[in-house]
Fold each of these.
Amino acid sequence: MHRAHTAFSLALSPMAHRNFATWLLKSGTSQKLAKATAAAAVRTYNSAAAEPFANGSTATYVEEMYNAWLRDPASVHTSWDAYFRSNTYTSPPNLAPVQANTLPLTAFNLGGGAVAGAAPDSKTIDDHLAVQAIIRSYQIRGHNIAHLDPLEINSPELPGNSSTKTIYANFSFEPSEQDMERQFKLPSTTFIGGDEASLPLKEILNRLENVYCNKIGVEFMFINSLEQCNWIRKRFETPGVLNFSPEEKRLILARLTRATGFEAFLAKKYSSEKRFGLEGCEIMIPALKEIIDVSTELGVESVIMGMPHRGRLNTLANVCRKPLNQIFTQFAGLEAADDGSGDVKYHLGTYIERLNRVTNKNIRLAVVANPSHLEAVDPVVQGKTRAEQFYRGDQEGKKVMSILIHGDAAFCGQGVVYETMHLSDLPDYTTHGTIHVVANNQIGFTTDPRFSRSSPYCTDVARVVNAPIFHVNADDPEAVMHVCKVAAEWRATFHKDCVIDLVGYRRNGHNEIDEPMFTQPLMYQKIRKHKNCLDLYADKLIAEGTVTGEEVKSVAAKYENICEEAFALAKTETHVKYKDWLDSPWSGFFEGKDPLKVAPTGVKEETLIHIGNRFSMPPPNAAEFVIHKGLMRVLAARKNMVDEKVTDWALGEAMAFGSLLKEGIHVRLSGQDVERGTFSHRHHVLHHQLVDKATYNSLQHMYPDQAPYSVSNSSLSEYAVLGFEHGYSMTNPNALVLWEAQFGDFSNTAQSIIDQFISSGQSKWVRQSGLVMLLPHGMEGMGPEHSSCRVERFLQMSSDDPDYFPPESDEFAVRQLHDINWIVANCTTPANLFHILRRQIALPFRKPLILCTPKSLLRHPEAKSPFSEMSEGSEFQRIIPDNGPAGQNPGSVKKVVFCSGRVYYDLTKMRAEKQLESDVAILRVEQISPFPFDLVKEQANLYKNAELVWAQEEHKNQGSWTYVQPRFLTALNHSRDVSQSDEPMSFSKTTTNTTTTTTDHTNNESASETESKPWLSRMFASNKSDGSTDGGPATGDFNAAKHFDLKNVRHDFNRPAGNAAAPGARISKTGRKISYTGRAASASTATGSKAQHIRELNALLNDAIST
Ligand SMILES: Cc1ncc(C[n+]2csc(CCOP(=O)(O)OP(=O)(O)O)c2C)c(N)n1
Ligand SMILES: [Mg+2]
């Protein structure tokens, strides 16, 4: 264990080096000090943000004095007596009640020859207070010298070798032999006495030593709540808490046997495979089971877990009870029966419902799929948990809980742990307590803790949220079980986070193929000689007569048989099925749905008027609810718009939300300052100007039977909050979940959530999400930051093939959406915003939406939409054509400018200035990805004689240019695949059906060798074409829909020019080109000074519009 021994030299408090009693007994200045201290203590107790209780030992002395005075005023010094009589001191509300077993100090054998029953002399008081201080010292820093490291190599270097001395060295109290036998009164802040009010000092020290310095190290005295501290003290100090019945011990042994047996079995069968075994920390499996057992007993019905590689397979097998054959199949290198890129076996998720045999209650267990990026899954798990709590109406987290498992190096190294911890107590993000389990093997890959962290413990990050930390030696199964039980009870009682630090070791290298002796030779020499936990525990139970050696062997043999049977079954499997590894099934969502049918997104005009009116209304009790004058003007302006049947951006967004809420769709918007909106345009939460915390949110009061709306300002974290919202969106497809970045570029601090989950989650883990990312974007002279949301990065990750023009049909648009990994758009009108948000729910599947959103456009007089563009019959426009003179007479247009986003308004202004409305057409590409090949082609054909340009305000290597350029070429040349020869490749067994929506799943099962290796297939095409169709599943569930989806993608990819192609496609090559107009490439998004920005913008507008 790496623990900084400096902790020991820290003083308890300024009082630590004094003789407390003497100090208290002094009069004059000391009295004043005492009074001040007492007053401070009162403030501390009464303040919501109390000072750390542990540091203020003063408070406890006053409290002890007060308790003593209550019992017997004569037992305290007259100064205290006078002080308490003055009623200045207020007993803290959460002060532990005086224990029944406490006795007045006068009852004790006194020092200095005083008579029993008389007022105690100063030595007696000194000694008692010193003993109390010692008790307290054990509670505060006993964990520092506890025997936590099974290898005993990383213990702190302490001065002297007596741990007891270390604990009380600061207290000017050197107990003699005689003192050791003396009875000492126990303070109300300890439970070591059980029913006894006093104990001999020897026994006190002995018990404290056992409780705090043995195999458990409890770190909790920094917690601000006395109630919580006492709760923990009681759970660890009460005599007998570590006594286990023979049945309990046998259960632990059986579970440990399975955990150990599983790793041994994998090691035997797949010796050269990476599995990130748990050896050295196998106790984690019984530990998780204990947490789940106790939590289930206390009412939890669903547990959502997030964990890294280490011990993951074991957890799936022995905690979730995922069928072993499914796990073993993952080792066989089989082809997938369904589609997707898949993932390595130690990343996959799972979802299981089963009976907990110990509690006899049904339980759901989910392990969320996660990427290699350590800890990235933490906020995702929290979001998923929060959502499940929300949908179940579990407002206090009594039914749904999360468990996060961490590695020691990752827990302290990865910042997202801290960011996630900070969500733990926020009203709209809390999951009402998470149990964190650290599989602390005292190493991270090849790096020792002393080189990987600056904190004494790997768990110190948890202290910031006042989470108790239970360190425990992983070689002591009973200590571990006790800690797990307390953790589960803690969560059920206080609904706050806590941490279990399982201190073990790693028996092998980082993975099974690594050689650990290269880097940790001494540690591994020790490990090689160290018996495993199961053997140690079995020896112990055999020695004490709880089990026999035969029983131990037979339990192990039984489990091995189970593994063998599953292994044999796995051998009969021919394919792996990704759907077996889905962590968030959406039962019923896909059933009976036409996977290519989008519900209309336009709504009745009366709905728009109703929502608009509500949204522009002050709170119903307006007479009492005073809102800011500026907001009155905002509301009045909204009302005017509704009367004129037009909408601006904020109103358009509210229309989308309100209409979805009306349809029963839960809407959740989260991000920094989203309630008002960074640009002060949204104002969803109105604040009473005179009453604190009185707010009104009109979107929550649109309709009596509407779905819940939640909008919440988040913590200042992108990584954790975006991850959280992604997790939230995974839980239920019938919700619109949106995350807004303050400015679009800040989303890059959440890059791993974007890369690892949002863009690729469906492909890797057959998991869909309709999450919306709102990214304020626009070059407006604000410098390198706050300008670009780096849309180029999102576009670069879009999975549509630039060289492939999909078959044209009525379903072109939806099929593209179906096949892509996410949607990237930049809308220029509130109506299009309205439709694209509603389309997220209208789609029969879910795709993430990356939406560049405006800043200055929020108030642009032209960026408004009439209600007619949102009412029934209207829909999202992927491309907004030119509806002016140019569009009406396209044949005479000289130039067509394609653009995306706010630059459109600058371009139209410049065109007007140059009076070129008939010569230059300006078209807006609103949905950038998937690229609207069909509409681009259609529009380009319309302007036959025109030169085509792409104009963007972003630099050439940024913005959409690099994405759209090759796609324009494909669209303009009507090409299916410009990189291919003219000969259609027809090896594929299916053709892409442009019209049918029927299902033929049977074909899918016979995926050929060549199909499964598209690149090879392409090179050595085998001319296999049966012309069968592969449309969408008529009755498909999620997996069926996805199956269908990816088959098409794959087939299309391999066989771009198919017999189902639109007539003429790919044949007529016009040879038209599109050129670029805009800023030069740049290393930064900066546009320099405001003046430079305007100069550059004008240049690009001039360039774009000149004919
Ligand atoms: C964000 C990130 N950085 C680096 C890695 C590479 N990596 C994989 S495991 C590992 C060590 C992790 O140590 P620890 O958290 O203690 O877990 P252990 O493997 O010891 O169980 C590292 C650095 C990673 N997976 N994720
Ligand atoms: Mg580690």
Amino acid sequence: MMHSSDAQGYNPAVPGSYSHPKVPPHQPSGQYNYSGSQNVSQFNSYQGPGQTLNRPPVAPLSGSPVQQTGPVPQVPPPALQNSAAISSAGSFPPGAGPPMLSNWQYSQSAVSHPAGTPPSHLAPGTGTGSAQPSPSLSGNTNPPGSYQYAASPGGPSLHNSFMKPGSAPPPVTQPLTPLHPPPRPPLGPPPVGGPPLIRPSTLTAGPPNTQSLLNSAANQDGDATSAASDGSAVQNSYDAIEGGGLMATPHPSPAPPNLKMNRNVGYSYPALPPGYQNTSPPGAPGMQASALQYPDGSKHFHQPPLGTNHLTASMGSLSLQQEGLRPVNLLQERNILPTTILQAPVPNLHEDIQKLNCNPELFRCTLTNIPQTQALLNKAKLPLGLLLHPFKDLSQLPVVTSSTIVRCRSCRTYINPFVSFLDQRRWKCNLCYRVNDVPEEFMYNPVTRVYGEPHKRPEVQNATIEFMAPSEYMLRPPQPPVYLFVFDVSHNAIETGYLNTVCKTLLDNLDLLPGNTRTKIGFITFDSTIHFYSLQEGLSQPQMLIVSDIEDVFIPMPENLLVNLNENKELIQDLLRTLPQMFTKSLETQSALGPALQAAFKLMSPTGGRISVFQTQLPSVGMGALKSREEPNQRATAKDIHLTPSTDFYKKLALDCSGQQVAVDLFLLSGQYSDLASLGCISRYSAGSVYYYQSYHHKHNPVQVEKLQKELKRYLTRKIGFEAVMRIRCTKGLSIHTFHGNFFVRSTDLLSLPNVNPDAGYAVQMSVEESLTDMQVVSFQSALLYTSSKGERRIRVHTMCLPVVTTLSDVYAGADVQAITGLLANMAVDRSVSATLSDARDALVNAVIDSLSAYRSSVLSIQQPGLMAPSSLRLFPLYVLALLKQKAFQTGTNARLDERIFTMCQVKNQPLVYLMLMTHPSLYRVDNLTDEGALNINDRTIPQPPILQLSVEKLSRDGAYLMDAGSVMFLWIGKNCGQSFISQVLGVPNYGSIPQNMTHLPELETAESIRTIAFVSWLREQRPFFPILYIIKDDSPLKSSFLQNMIEDRTESALSYYEFLLHIQQQVNK
Ligand SMILES: [Zn+2]
């Protein structure tokens, strides 16, 4: 072990305030070596089901102590958890336990309610005393091997498929007890309208899970899942806030079900800025920018009558566009790839509605025509789901500051462009059809400054909008931004030289970290021991404290390890300058990652925040130590590859983190196998991000250094949301049953996101639980409640509206092939982990076969030879073939295990646009770029060459081609490439003198160079990661990587596109 504090001159002064019994009175060596046991409460005690869900610091129950600021016991007694579960989830009648279904299909049960019963499906946790039979669960709870995407109940289809045929179980009628009373007495007359409509809670049942410590339904794999009654475990959870908008209430108590939708602010937080900016995201229809002042606070006016419902008025003119249905013979039509990036299909809605719809970059559905029934969906053999990019950076976003956030009393939907106004004072929810009152304040339109125009309010004019949340949306005062960096400083880590790059980048961007005057920062380093750094004000230099007891980690002088960034900037900068040199002589090869993470968690627990951990090898000592599982000789087969974690240590720790609003981002920089399948869990369940720099080395792999720098800069400076939760709602009748992404599912459908970042994507699967009879449209709404780095509580809401159709041909006409592919990829990752890779591959192929068979037998009126697909799905076989050849799912290659796992992480966590690019790269010819059709952005001319098919047939030896595969780019130079390109763009005299390892385009003063660089830079700027550009020739060792991406061509282990089509045709015609 290397203690370099002496050498580095770190001040060994005994911290005055620290009085841990184990602290030696004095250490001559100038360091504190806290070894041996100590009294700090046990860190590692995963004992109870609720433990990971417990969130002690939040407790604003009415009548109970409001906030705890300090650390609190982490493990409540299990019994308490259970009882809490029942009382607050409100899911089960007393005495009734969650029914355990016997199979692992996504079963949902519907709950219907007699007319007149109070609305009940506020999200669990809002305190209904009654019940829905649902141990909720997203599909990630299934034990490996028993996971079925498909298989109709009782039906014959047991082949691999992702579809979920089958119908929902019969509705169960449950008496409901009323909701809690709202914090203030209800206003206005009782709601008008029909009986409350209830959206049944989602069920995903499964066998009791003995392994998990989370309640009966904890997840084993896949994404997060909620424990059966987990939401319950935290009575006073964010669930209550997002779902109910009420301060969580400890015990259900009978009360009138009139939740007030007009949620007045009891008291306001000083952080809430006044003012209203009405701006819009680029390209988002219906978001006219205007600079308007939104008066803070409500205005009281007299309301004039409102016109007729603007939404239904437009409904009459739905007309079908049949282009998507045009039959295409795939075996004949070879030029099906569009020459520009494929756009999302436009939903077939009246233009007045469509222009208000959510931008497809933010919210997308696999089927833009929603099938009316599950039977129709089953027939189509296409997955129904949503793909979201909810926190995407938007250059313009309408932000509303108002004391009144108008939501449906019944289902808590935020008022949105697709509600209908029945008359001057009532609006009808587009998700549950409850009729709600228009609050007085909402009658005034701050945009037009006119009273009596609630339908013209920004909330009703923008499908994407952000609210400044009043205090009811807080369980505690908004947390400060807290950033903790955890660095591997073992010998191996120092060898890679990464610490230099990271510390330098951090130094350069210290002032750009999102935050405010409350921002805190801290550092931990570790090898076989854990080193803390005191940055206490008044110290002349940082002070290193070493804890060598990694079995029972505790935090020395916790008050000085996370310090205010602004007040201690010099000490912090000092540390960042010194750190890279501190361990250069270290011979310590061991890695105590697990204990270091435990320490980090302890340090962060009181506040929440972000942990960024940098790791360069397999953790070898202490909790979470791992053994290598990669067997090089087995790489080539799909069998026996280790896609599942080898320990649940990281997942459990992640759930602890999640409970304390801490997210962990993992940067893995390693040349050797590091078991990302296990390590990645720390980020996945805590809503973190994973970055992987394979074979990072500052000298041997310099191109990775630039990539790390660029991506780290983005990481450090991008927007961040803290203590976030997200809920996705959909119109009654539809039901969400599985979630994909990095998060933990709390209480059925509430995604817990300790951090949310603008680069994360999510997906959900849905089913049609009750027929959507008589509905012309359905809507989907995501609501993300978060604390901004400025300490504001905000809610970002996206709402999408889609038409309902009754025929199979209409379902196909509206299919969004990219969204379908993206969702299938997510499902295939789950399948690979829960079953096998070959099962997942089979299921992907079957998805194509099944849907094209159904199209052929049920939609095509004239049978013809060939392989017929509706135009909307013409790229489906190509995209699925591309998935099969993608690193996540390919066989017979040298894909290293960690690389494969990382690709799977990307599939799960990336927005659709990047997922598509890494699955089916874009190929451009670039040796003849022109300004024709070029974009003009900020005085730069960006050429827009056409996209080519991914086949060597499309390559000409006298050209140069750029392949953009998302996180990597290849510039292939043909042997006979024109001299002018080689000299004017590459800056070398001839083909022979192009260097073998060229990764940069020189900036030359030629038109060709300027065009090419403009194009490459433009491509790079549009994504949050930095693709390395490899310039390759025919004899380049990277040529095989380039050819591997030629999806349409045959490889040693995979079919060509044409062969694949023949295979599909054979199956379809069976
Ligand atoms: Zn509603």
